[in-house]
Amino acid sequence: MLPLRQPFDVAHDDAQTNAAQTSGAPMTLGRAIVITSGKGGVGKTTTTANLGVALAKRGAKVALVDADVGLRNLDILMGLESRVRHHVLDVLEEKVELDEALVRDKHFPNLFLLAAAQSREKDEVDTESMRDLIEELREQFDYVLIDCPAGIEMGFKNAVVGAQEAIVVCTPEVSAVRDVDRVVGLLGNAFTPKLIINRVRPHLVHKGKMLSVEDVNSILRLPLLGVIADEPDVIVSTNKGEPLALRTDTATAKAYHTIAARIAGEDVPAPMVEYKETFIDKLGSLLGGRR
Amino acid sequence: MKARKIVLTSGKGGVGKTTATVNIGAALAKRGHRVILVDTDIGLRNLDLVLGLEKRIVFDLVEVIEGRCQVRQALIKDKRFESLAILPAAQTRNKDSITQAQMARLIDELADMADYVLIDCPAGIEGGFRNAIAGADEAIVVTTPEVSAIRDADRVIGKLAERSIPMRLIINRIRPDMVRSGDMLSIDDVCEILSIELLGIIPDDEEIIDTTNRGEPLVLGEGYRLRSIYEKIVRRLEGDLIPFTNLDAPGFFGRLIGALKAG
């Protein structure tokens, strides 16, 4: 059985940090968290965008960093692609100041995006400069969320170098579990990665056609931040550039807000997805289980 | 006769490259061809899992390149088809363990032993991507109808075009109901943006999840909806002119739900 109540071990209060930074007290550095997975397409960027929005909604100052040089997408998910003028490499190469490269979010004045370069290569990023850049961001922000590219090449190393915490995103597929397991190994002992299990389809789990949360975590054995269901509205929100966490009324939006609360140190249970038999399911089984 | 050397690539991860490689490979084998599938995702291999061959791995691609074993020793024959084999990637090595020239030589060597060599490319456009395309003379670009996947595919198409590699497109995980309601980009939208020849359209179907997890390619099973879709893709690959399935025609169940909603 999994521990369902697993708040972050380092309690952290957004309001306190803000107060400390404005009152000139000894400066507290923000938390740099890398969101990674190994396998692509499991929802790293979607998770980064939604947790960014959810943390910003709580009043925290949040910077989102797209580390996927050459294949950036976080700007699209945030609906900010036409506002991006400069990118990470411009800052690293000192062509522009950090403040000029940060794009302010449309909805939250305390949420910013630092876009990746699209027409450059990942090996053009200097790992040490990247570490310094994340540190500089931590001086200004409560949270720095780093969206890691797929794979475990240079892009992964540069995304991880400045982070102190890691969130790994996994889907209930054997291939994704194997890749996450490998990434957890590569992250090493400096990190205690927290797990988000994404794209769970409860009716498939119920039928035994998809790995369950327990199956996934019996292999990975990581502290669980939460479980997110596979809903078609994720695709719609990606295409529209409006993260689901902008709302508060849908199940998926609520799950992101709960995960954000857990990241902030609140002792609330991890969001889970439950199987509920719908009318269509009943009808389906009646008609011979076509779906 | 040398084999056709085809790389399956996408830029974005998780769009279905490995699943497509395995099902196209198995469908080709079923048609009597000798097929070798090459997993180039060094460090994050998965092709072996999707075919259920993970327990049979003895040697891997890097060991072949380093001359520690013969190619034939590293190839794993499929349990179901003698004519289908995989060359697994190394799991505990880095993608920079090999060079593009070494990969090109290896793919060439494999091409002497088969009719088709399908190369499963890792996500991204880093060294692993450059290695995977080094030995290929054709490409299949796999994408999904999402803005992010299409932008990444476009970037990959540019890189393949630089090397004059001919390419065709598979659009994966289409949900006809969402296209109809305007919540998903249509086939025409995607083709217009990417403007390369279309090879296949694969609907989003839950049966793929279970078969992938069990390591049983659905083209080898019975009664799967996606089987005929893959078989048509393979026939197009072989030069047959096969019309595309009209996904807009709702099936019995779709009509029933439509009627219930309307009522």
Short account of what is shown:
The complex is a heterodimer of chains A (291) and B (263). With 291 residues, chain A is an alpha/beta fold. Chain A has 13 helices and eight strands.
Whole-number mean pLDDT of chain A: 90
The shape of chain B is globular
Number of beta-strand segments of chain B = 8
What is the chain-wise order of helices and strands of chain A? HEHEHHHEEHEHEHEHHEHHH
Report the structural category of chain A.
Answer: alpha/beta
Strand content of chain B: 15-25%
| Strand percent estimate of chain A | 5-15%
Order the strands across the largest sheet of chain A as they lie in space. 3-4-2-5-1-6-7-8
- Rg of chain B over CA atoms, rounded to whole Å, is 18 Å
Low-confidence stretches of chain A: 1-23
| Number of helices, where a helix is a run of at least 4 consecutive DSSP H or I residues of chain B | 12
How far apart lie the N and C ends of chain A?
30 Å
Helical stretch count of chain A? Answer: 13
Largest interface: A-B, 45 and 44 residues
